[in-house]
Design goal:
With about 475 residues, this protein is α/β, with parallel strands linked by helices. The chain is built from 17 helices and 12 strands. The protein is about 45% helix and about 15% strand.
């Protein structure tokens, strides 16, 4: 451990807490700016993600040793304490003396002379204590699990009430440690075996994901963007849950497809590969800069059937073609990806009454464009029935011309609880994926059905 590394980690944590920066972006930028590699890069990453993953636990410990209320402790001081306690109690390779001394030096570096004694006292008291800390009484189950796994009580209660205590605790346990990196093989340019060999030549360990074709787990990637295989457009990063979502959509060559909330574009890219780059995919988003990123990545992958379209998915203001396939992957609370973005759990409005209504408007507006006999996937990367199962149930009750299509689950994918045949909530402990929800709908013929047109009209495309 050195003060430079802990200072870099502190500055990243402050950006996340004070500016709302995304952990992965803030950390990657810091690693590049400070030219970190190898052990230093890994150590800074462990510090940042360790604090983010254990912040509630760390703050609970601070409260038990501090006479000053947590809310009155200055933000820098609080984060230096978090870093110090993390190293004392949850990291094996840092000697206690080094953790204490470097924390005090870090405070002095940031001109926190008054706080340095406070930090020194708390950390030294922890090193002397026989029992470092005691968790809350297990009888208050939500409080106990919240502190143990560092997840807010309202989320713990949501998961217990929705999925049962056993599923809830396994979900909470799955949040510790870094999630696996997954990629989708670009079948327009290569195959899985060839890509595995090319990645091996670059020092990357790649392994086939057993429950979905052309999907790989990656290890030892370093910065993915630096890899020759990535620059050559042989793959794109996409979790297995997201790849399953596209697999259930069953896009075919010559289909017209709408991806109504497409950024960052991974599902559109996978669908284009299923379609063998033949047909039309309209990748839509509200923000022009996100559409430009989609276009750039499509170009890297050699995909030409994607057109980007600037629009608000919750309205029907923009004319769209009638589509054979619609992917409705709506904005959500992100509870299923907390292992990738641990800072999500500390947002104030995660369980929102407004979000399910917005998602439902997007679903209804999107469904208007589905051709008779077509398929529509509604999906989220969250674990909240209000955003998932309840929206699906409401949609089918209020749209009699739609029906649920039973999902054909691949081997290795199992349900964590009872759901309808046309939907599944993927969970890390049952499927080895991010937390994710998928439902699949078809459309019946009716007098109100739209006429299927083969070419879109009146479209204002970005590219």
């Amino acid at each position: 451990m050195c003060i430079r590394d802990s200072n870099i980690a502190l500055n990243v944590l402050l950006k996340i807490e004070n500016e709302g920066a995304y952990s992965n972006i803030a950390l990657n930028n810091a690693i590049k700016e400070n030219r970190l590699s190898g052990v230093d890069s890994s150590f800074v990453s462990a510090l940042v993600y360790g604090v983010l993953e254990r912040r509630i636990t760390l703050d609970y410990i601070i409260r038990s040793y501090s006479k000053i209320p947590l809310r009155k402790i200055e933000t820098k001081t609080k984060n230096i304490l978090r870093l110090g306690i993390l190293q004392l109690l949850f990291m094996d390779k840092v000697p206690d003396s080094a953790a204490v001394n470097e924390s005090v030096n870090l405070a002095k570096k940031h001109k926190l002379q008054k706080s340095s004694g406070f930090i020194n006292g708390i950390l030294r008291n922890i090193t002397r204590a026989e029992d470092k800390y005691t968790l809350p009484d297990e009888k208050d189950r939500a409080r106990y699990l919240s502190v143990k796994y560092s997840v807010p009580e309202n989320i713990v209660k949501l998961w217990i009430n929705s999925y049962g205590e056993n599923n809830a605790e396994q979900l909470l346990a799955s949040l510790n440690g870094r999630a696996k990196i997954c990629c989708r093989v670009n079948t327009l340019r290569t195959d899985a075996d060839t890509l595995i060999k090319k990645l091996s030549d670059e020092g990357v360990v790649a392994e086939k994901i057993p429950f979905i074709d052309n999907a790989l787990y990656l290890e030892n990637t370093g910065s993915v963007e630096r890899l020759r295989a990535y620059k050559s457009g042989l793959f794109h990063i996409q979790d297995a849950s997201s790849q399953l979502c596209v697999n259930f959509l069953d896009a075919k060559p010559r289909n017209i497809m709408l991806d109504v909330c497409s950024a960052p574009g991974g599902k559109s890219f996978s669908a284009a590969q299923y379609m063998n780059n033949r047909g039309r995919i309209f990748s839509c988003d509200m923000f022009d800069h996100k559409l430009k990123l989609i276009s750039a990545c499509a170009k890297r992958l050699g995909i030409t059937c994607i057109s980007t379209l600037l629009r608000d998915a919750s309205t029907n203001d923009t004319a769209l073609p009638v589509a054979d396939r619609i992917l409705c992957d709506v904005p959500c609370s992100g509870l299923g990806i907390m292992s990738r973005k641990p800072e999500i759990r500390y947002k104030d409005d995660l369980i929102s009454n407004d979000l399910p209504d917005l998602q439902y408007r997007i679903l209804c507006a999107s469904a208007d464009n589905l051709a008779v006999g077509g398929k529509l996937v509604y999906s989220t990367c969250t674990l909240n029935p209000d955003e998932n199962n309840k929206n699906t149930k409401r949609f089918l009750e209020e749209h009699p011309d739609f029906y649920g299509i039973p999902l054909k689950l691949p081997n290795g994918i199992t349900r964590a609880f009872d759901e309808e045949p046309y939907e599944i909530t993927l969970m890390p402990h049952t499927c080895g994926t991010d937390g994710f929800y998928i439902s699949l709908f078809g459309k019946k013929a009716s007098n109100l059905s739209l006429i299927h047109i083969s070419e879109p009209t009146r479209l204002r495309c970005i590219s």
